[in-house]
Write a structure and sequence with these properties.
Bound molecules: nicotinamide-adenine-dinucleotide
CATH architecture: 3-Layer(aba) Sandwich
CATH class: Alpha Beta
Strand content: 5-15%
CATH topology: Rossmann fold
Number of domains: 1
Largest sheet: 7 strands, parallel
Number of helices: 8
Shape: globular
Helix content: 40-55%
Distance between the termini: 38 Å
Strand order of the largest sheet: 3-2-1-4-5-6-7
Order of helices and strands: HEHEHEHEHEHEHHE
Length: about 290
């Protein structure tokens, strides 16, 4: 794997992510794909804001244990649970374990995702099904189990005015088409409509469903885009704010959406993309 350049090399000043306020004290969260990249930062960020966090992973248990240690370092409880989010029985088993350990759950961040890129005529059915199965069906399976618990329990007034919060990890590719990545873009477009339909269905139960649409975030999923100065310069043509996103940029927004500060927000995708969805090609007049 290419070595990761120091963030300051390309990014300049970054916010102090550790300043995050304690907005979700006493809440219980589950983050899928939480042993890497965005999921890892979200899990630690939720803990920093006061939540206990289940760290779902499917491979690389040591990385999951490291995230649990970081959560504990923030003074919260953490627990790693292995499950492939595309498998119904494993997802159900994960929720059983999570509820047994934490008693309930208030926040779900279905984040696990991957790419299997190919031009259309080269794309196998397996590549298509893998991406849809994990990125889209995996979120459906986790949301269904979390919502059963939210409905069973109702509002936990001592921690939140809502009965539950779902924060789907989408992408700018829920609205930006992506040649050569039809399976991925379709999965993210599907997340958008799943999220909005569920927001509508579940709002009367005081369950909020939203999504985050990351732009280019520095994680192992997209190393090709940021590991050399040339690739980074190319990427910046797509980012009006002229820096790559850090996983912590997403974590801060997840904390906000999970908190009662966002209580009147449901059914939206909050793009966290440095302006990538603002048609940067038109910046000079088109
Ligand atoms: P990553 O590769 O670092 O993390 C993906 C995580 O998902 C890993 O922990 C991986 O093990 C896990 N995962 C994969 N298949 C799984 C399965 N079947 N069951 C459980 N976990 C599984 O990449 P990332 O960039 O952190 O991606 C996280 C999410 O953010 C993805 O949904 C991705 O589409 C989305 N996203 C990332 C970017 C970006 O620029 N990095 C941009 C937009 C959206």
């Amino acid at each position: 794997m290419p070595t990761q350049p120091d963030a300051s090399q390309f990014n300049g000043d970054l916010p102090n992510y550790k300043n995050c306020p304690k907005l979700i004290v006493g809440q219980k969260a589950l983050v899928t794909g939480a042993n890497s990249g965005i999921g890892r930062a979200v899990a630690i960020g939720l803990a920093r804001a006061g939540a206990d966090v289940i760290v779902n992973y499917v491979t690389n248990e040591p990385a999951a244990r490291e995230v649990v240690a970081a959560i504990e370092g923030e003074g919260a409880k953490g627990l790693a649970i292995k499950a492939d989010v595309s498998r119904e029985a494993e997802v159900q088993g994960m929720f059983e374990q999570a509820l047994a350990a934490f008693g309930t759950i208030d926040i779900l961040v279905p984040n696990a995702g991957l790419q299997r890129d190919a031009a259309l005529t080269e794309m196998s059915l397996e590549q298509w099904n893998t991406v849809i199965g994990i990125n889209l069906t995996g979120q459906f399976l986790c949301i269904r189990e979390a919502v059963k618990e939210f409905l069973r329990r109702g509002v936990r007034k001592d921690v939140s005015v809502a009965a539950g919060k779902i924060i789907c990890m989408s992408s700018v590719h829920e609205v930006i088409p992506w040649a050569g990545h039809v399976n991925y873009a379709t999965s993210k477009g599907g997340i958008q409509m799943m999220m909005k339909s569920l927001a509508q269905e579940l709002a009367p139960h005081r369950i909020r469903v939203n999504a985050i649409g990351p732009g280019a975030i520095r994680t192992p999923i997209n190393t090709d885009a940021w590991t050399t100065p040339e690739a980074y310069a190319d990427l910046m043509k797509l980012v009006p704010y002229r820096r790559i996103g850090e996983p912590e940029d997403i974590a801060q927004v997840a904390v906000f959406l999970a908190s009662d500060m966002a209580d009147y927000i449901s059914g939206v995708t909050l793009f966290v993309d440095g302006g990538m969805t603002c048609y940067p090609g038109f910046a000079t007049g088109g």
